[in-house]
Write a structure and sequence with these properties.
Helix content: 25-40%
Number of strands: 11
Strand order of the largest sheet: 3-4-6-5-7-8-9-10-11
Radius of gyration: 24 Å
Largest sheet: 9 strands, mixed
Shape: globular
Distance between the termini: 30 Å
Strand content: 5-15%
Length: 528
C-alpha cells in the first residue's frame, strides 16, 4: 500500500454509492448540495512545516448517502501560489497509502523537492483523508499483539470490533469514494469550478475516483505511480513481493558500486553477506531473502579454473541455501526470528526510495540501528497508530479480490515461523488472513474516463516495487492516460530531482499535454 516515505518516519500506498453511467453521463448524488461557508484560513498542525502554509476545516457528511446526518471536520492545508499574477488554479495532492498524511504532501524533505514552477503557479491543497488525525480520526481499542490465533484467523474482524467499541460504526464510512466526495465538498468550499489533481500511489485511485465521479469539475489529472484497479487489495500486496526482492538486490548493487565509501564488498553478493551477518547479530536468525546472483568477483581463488560453473552453482542454489540456513539458525536459537531485526525491516522499507539507500549502507557498515533507535524509545505516536488502523479498515472495506485459501499455509509459515517480511505481507493478503472476519462493505467505483476535457497523465518507473509498471498501465488504460515511463525503480517519480519528469509535469499542468513518453532514472544519491 503505497505511500510517500519521509526517511523512516512516514509510511510507506469506497463505500461506493452506486455509479451509473448512461450515454457517457455520470450520475452522482441526487438533490442540490448544501452551500459551504467560505473557509477561514489559519495556523496548521505542527506537522505542516512549510513556511506560508495555512489550514482550515471543511464540514463533510460522515455518510454522503445521508447528507443531513452526522458530520465530520476535515482539515485542509494550502500553500498559496507564490506568484499570484501567474496563478493557474488549485492542485489537490494525496500522499497515497491509504493512510498517508496529505496535509504535508507538498512539503519539501529529503525525499521530495517540488518544482519551483508548481509552487509559483498553483495553490497547493492537501485534504486530509477521513479517518486520519485532523479529519475525524479513527480511534480503536488496543488489540493484544500476543493473540496469535486472532491474528491468524480473525484479524480484520477483531480490528473492526475494536474500532466499533470506541467510535461506533464510523469505520464503515472509511472508503475511497467517500474521501473523493470529501474532495468535492472542499472544492465547493474553495469556490473553484475545477481542480487539478496530483495523486501518488493510492492517490492515483483516489484521484481517478474523483475524476470518474466529477469529470465536469476535473481539470488536469496527474497519476504518479499507478495502482491496478483490479488488484485492490489482496492482489496488490502479492504483486509487490518479487519486485521488492529485486529492488533490494539493486540496492546491494549500488552499495557494491560504492565500495570505496562503505567497504562492504564490490559485488552485490558480498554486500548481501555483510547485511545478512548484521541481521543475524540483531535477531539471531539468518534472513531467508534469496541472495543476488554471484559474479566473477565472488569466485574464490581456488575455484577460478571453473569460475563459470561456480557462479552458476552458487546462483542456482542460493535461494534454497538461504531458506535452509534460516531454519537451521532458528532451530539452534529458539525464539530467533529475522523480523525482529530493525535493519531487516528497514531494508525493505527503504528499497523503493534510492535516496534512503545510504542510510542502509551506513547501518550495515557501522552496525548502527537505522534511525538511531535506543532501548528507551518512546511509545509509537498516536497519529501513526491511527493511520495504521485507518489503512487496514479501508483495505478491508473495499477489498475486491477473493482470497486464495491455498496461500494460507504459506502465510502461517512466513508469518509465525520464518518471519520473512518479503513474503509474509503478500501472503497475508492473498490468503485472506489480513481481512479475515471483515468482508467488504462496498464495491469500488468503476474507474473510467467519462469525457474528461484533458487527457490524464500517468508516470511510473519500470522497477517500482510498490506499484509495478504493468499494473500502472492498466490504470492508464482505464483512464485513457498519456504514459511516461521512467527508468529505475523509485516509487513516486515527480519531485525527485528528475528534470525531465518535472518539466513534463509542469508542461502538462500548464498546457494539458506533453510529448514526453520516456524519462531517465533520477540521479542516484551521493554515497557517504
Amino acid at each position: 500500500m503505497p505511500a510517500r516515505t519521509t526517511g523512516f518516519r512516514r509510511s510507506v500506498s469506497v463505500a461506493v454509492a452506486p455509479l451509473l453511467a448512461a450515454a457517457g453521463v455520470v450520475v452522482t448524488q441526487a438533490g442540490a448540495p448544501a452551500a459551504q461557508a467560505a473557509p477561514a484560513w489559519g495556523p496548521c498542525p505542527e506537522s505542516v512545516t512549510t513556511p506560508g502554509a495555512v489550514c482550515t476545516t471543511v464540514s463533510v457528511p460522515e455518510d454522503h448517502a445521508q447528507p443531513d446526518g452526522e458530520r465530520i471536520d476535515v482539515t485542509v492545508s494550502k500553500l498559496p501560489a507564490r506568484n499570484p499574477e501567474a496563478r493557474r488554479g488549485v492542485l489537490f495532492g494525496n500522499a497515497g497509502g491509504p493512510g498517508g498524511d496529505s496535509l504535508t504532501y507538498f512539503d519539501d524533505d529529503e525525499v521530495a523537492t517540488w518544482p519551483q514552477e508548481i509552487r509559483d503557479e498553483w495553490d497547493l491543497i492537501g485534504v486530509q483523508p477521513r479517518g486520519l488525525a485532523h479529519a475525524g480520526p479513527l480511534h480503536c481499542a488496543p488489540l493484544d499483539p500476543n493473540d496469535l490465533l486472532t491474528l491468524a484467523t480473525n484479524s480484520g474482524g477483531a480490528l473492526r470490533a475494536s474500532c466499533e467499541a470506541v467510535g461506533g460504526d464510523r469505520w464503515r464510512h472509511l472508503t475511497t469514494e467517500n474521501t473523493a466526495r470529501d474532495w468535492e465538498e472542499v472544492r465547493r468550499a474553495l469556490d473553484e469550478e475545477r481542480i487539478s489533481i496530483h495523486g501518488l500511489s493510492y492517490g492515483t485511485l483516489l484521484g481517478s475516483t474523483y475524476a470518474t465521479l466529477f469529470p465536469q469539475h476535473t481539470d488536469k489529472l496527474v497519476l504518479d505511480s499507478g495502482v491496478h484497479p483490479d488488484w485492490i487489495w489482496n492482489e496488490m500486496l502479492l504483486q509487490q513481493s518479487e519486485p521488492y526482492k529485486r529492488r533490494v538486490h539493486a540496492m546491494f548493487d549500488w552499495i557494491a558500486a560504492n565500495d570505496a565509501v562503505y567497504g562492504l564488498g564490490d559485488t552485490p553478493l558480498a554486500v548481501y553477506r555483510r547485511w545478512s551477518a548484521r541481521v543475524v547479530e540483531e535477531s539471531g536468525a539468518v534472513p531467508t531473502l534469496a541472495p543476488p546472483p554471484a559474479r566473477e568477483g565472488d569466485v574464490p581463488p581456488e575455484w577460478r579454473v571453473v569460475a563459470r560453473q561456480w557462479i552458476d552453482g552458487v546462483t542456482l542454489t542460493g535461494p534454497a541455501r538461504a531458506q535452509l540456513d534460516g531454519l537451521a539458525s532458528q532451530l539452534l536459537r529458539p525464539g530467533a526470528m529475522q523480523s525482529h531485526s530493525i535493519l531487516f525491516a528497514a531494508t525493505r522499507q527503504a528499497a523503493p526510495q534510492s535516496v534512503l539507500w545510504p542510510e542502509i549502507a551506513t547501518a550495515i557498515r557501522d552496525g548502527s540501528p537505522v534511525g538511531a533507535q535506543t532501548p528507551d524509545m518512546p511509545e509509537v505516536p498516536e497519529e501513526f497508530l491511527i493511520a495504521l488502523n485507518m489503512q487496514a479498515i479501508v483495505v478491508c472495506n473495499e477489498n475486491r479480490v477473493p482470497p486464495n485459501p491455498l496461500a494460507y499455509p504459506g502465510f502461517l509459515w512466513t508469518q509465525f515461523v520464518t518471519g520473512d517480511l518479503f513474503d509474509s505481507v503478500g501472503l497475508m493478503f492473498t490468503s485472506g488472513a489480513a481481512c479475515a472476519g471483515a468482508p467488504p462493505v462496498t464495491t469500488p467505483v468503476d474507474l473510467r474516463n467519462h469525457g474528461l476535457d484533458t487527457q490524464p497523465l500517468l508516470l511510473n518507473s519500470l522497477g517500482d516495487p510498490q506499484t509495478p509498471h504493468h499494473g500502472a498501465l492498466a490504470l492508464a488504460d482505464r483512464m485513457g492516460a498519456h504514459v511516461v515511463t521512467v527508468e529505475g525503480g523509485d516509487h513516486g517519480v515527480v519531485a525527485k530531482r528528475n528534470r525531465v519528469v518535472d518539466d513534463a509535469v509542469v508542461e502538462y499542468l500548464r498546457t494539458g499535454r506533453t510529448g514526453v513518453t520516456h524519462a531517465p532514472a533520477p540521479p542516484m544519491p551521493a554515497a557517504g
